[in-house]
Amino acid sequence: MILLDGKKTSQEIKDEIAKEVQKVSEKTGKKPHLAVVLVGNNGASVTYVNAKLKDCKEVGFDSTLVKLSETISEKELLEEVHKLNEDDAVDGYIVQLPLPKHIDEQKVIMAIDPEKDVDGFHPQNLGRMALNLPTFLPATPMGIIDLLDRYNIETGGKHCVVIGRSHIVGLPASILMGRNAYPGNATVTLTHSRTTNLKELLNEADIIIAALGKPNFVTADMVKDGVVIIDVGTTRVVDKSKKSGHRLVGDVDFEKVAEKASYITPVPGGVGPMTRVSLLKNTLMAARRK
Ligand code: GUN
Questions:
Q1: In DSSP terms, which residues pair with 190 in a beta bridge?
Q2: Quick check: pTM over 0.90?
């Protein structure tokens, strides 16, 4: 079994980005600039946003945090989005999800200038992704693809089963794995809560991308020998022994499944760091385009 080390791989990519930033800023006097919109105080969102800002600092990007109240109206948030669209100093930005219930997320995503949509969530960018045109790819699926690439894992003709059809992970990951490209060219099955024969499908899978958000859902009896496991799950469970009071648990029963797998991502330290570095890659691309 080979561990797919997202921490180490993402650090390599970060080092490459930092070098590139230095070159670009020596030439133009400008650094790539990411803005992050955070609405409210959702614990996980605050952690993710802080991590994203820390990453920017590490590679030499400028960053701005736009912190907004939980009670902001949809109209006011859309005004903030328009301001960021118009702000020439900002190369790319994201609106951290989820948003409070009274705000229509899709409406907000649609208001983001596709040229600044470094999350790759705008329908124009998702459409470009599906058509294999250059675009901002959503961060988690891009991180998965980069990890498979860096470890030279064969995907062509393989059966890839994706669990979960979220707009952020499962759906775009299934499109990327099926594209005529490397990594890609897999035969993809996108499964979800209404799938009736998940166990059978998983038992036939060469590659499993688990993104359903249920701790230890995929167990050893469900997978075949030699399977490649990509675990996207990051459920917080209470753990008093940790300083934070919680730990992250993946969607895969790592200990037992690792004994059968050829490659497997750990949680934490697998897909998570790759997701973070993908946002940096998109921001660099946005800055270069300008
Ligand atoms: N919430 C969870 N993941 C993400 C992400 O990749 N981008 C944004 N904007 N919100 C998220």
A1: 162
A2: yes
- CATH class name, domain 28-113: alpha beta
Do the domains 28-113 and 139-272 sit in the same CATH topology, yes or no? yes
Residue 70: pLDDT above 90? Answer: yes
Topology classification of domain 139-272: Rossmann fold (3.40.50)
- Which of 39, 84, 97, 277 is the pocket-test mutation for ligand 1 (most atoms within 8 Å of CB)? 97
Quick check: CB of 119 below 6 Å from ligand 1? yes
DSSP per-residue letters across 47-100: HHHHHHHHHHHHHT-EEEEEEE-TT--HHHHHHHHHHHHH-TT-SEEEE-SPPP
Centroid of ligand 1 to alpha carbon of 97 (angstroms): 5
**Alpha-carbon distance 16 to 271, whole Å?**
19
How confident is the model over 121-148, as pLDDT tens digits? 999 999 999 999 999 999 999 999 999 9
- CA–CA dist 150, 72 (Å, integer): 42
Dump pLDDT digits (tens) for 175-220. 999 999 999 999 999 999 999 999 999 999 999 999 999 999 999 9
- Is residue 108 within 8 A of residue 52, CB to CB? The reply is no
Alpha carbons within 13 angstroms on the beta-carbon side of residue 86 total 6
Domain ranges of the chain: 28-113, 139-272
